[in-house]
Amino acid sequence: MELGSLTEFLVKSLVKNPDMVSVKAFDDDDKITVEVLVSNEDMGRVIGKKGMIINAIRTIVQASSYLNHDKRVFINIDSF
């Protein structure tokens, strides 16, 4: 599974407005950066208390990348 679509699936499963989620993946030489945009009211759901939810998402996506012998993954989240 592609890392962008995996991240999108995980984030859309958490938020109230899944139609407002935008995920884009950028492949650099030594890393993959995934940009996630969610609505302002869903930001707390995605980050979680003390960042637990977003850290779990990062762990799952990085593990998937490791299993597919891919690069290091960075996930940036922002709201609009």
Helix-strand layout with pairing:
Blueprint: H1 3-12, E1 22-27, E2 31-38, H2 43-47, H3 52-67, E3 72-79
Parallel strand pairs: 2-3
Antiparallel strand pairs: 1-2
Helix pairs in contact: 1-3
Description of the molecule:
It is a single chain. The protein has 80 residues and is α+β, with helices and mostly antiparallel strands. The chain has one domain: 2-Layer Sandwich (GMP Synthetase, Chain A, domain 3). 39% of the residues lie in helices and 28% in strands. A three-stranded mixed β-sheet has the order 1-2-3, with helices on one face. 15% of the residues are buried. The model has no long low-confidence stretch (mean pLDDT 92).
Feature tags:
alpha+beta, 3 strands, 80 residues, three-stranded mixed sheet, 39% helix, single chain, GMP Synthetase, Chain A, domain 3
Question: What is the total domain count?
Answer: 1
Instruction: Sum up the overall morphology in one term.
Output: globular
Please give the order of strands in the largest beta sheet: 1-2-3
Oligomeric status of the shown chains?
single chain
Number of strands: 3
Could you tell me the CATH topology label. Answer: GMP Synthetase, Chain A, domain 3
Task: Supply the CATH class.
Answer: Alpha Beta
The ordered string of helix (H) and strand (E) elements is HEEHHE
- CATH homologous superfamily classification: K homology (KH) domain
> DSSP helix count?
3
Overall mean pLDDT: 92
Q: Ends: how far apart?
A: 27 Å
- Any idea what the CATH architecture is? 2-Layer Sandwich
What structural class should be given to the helix and strand makeup? alpha+beta
Task: Assess the beta-strand content as a share of residues.
Answer: 25-35%
Largest sheet: 3 strands, mixed
| Rg calculated over all Cα atoms | 12 Å
Classify the helix fraction into a percent range.
25-40%
* Uncertain segments: none
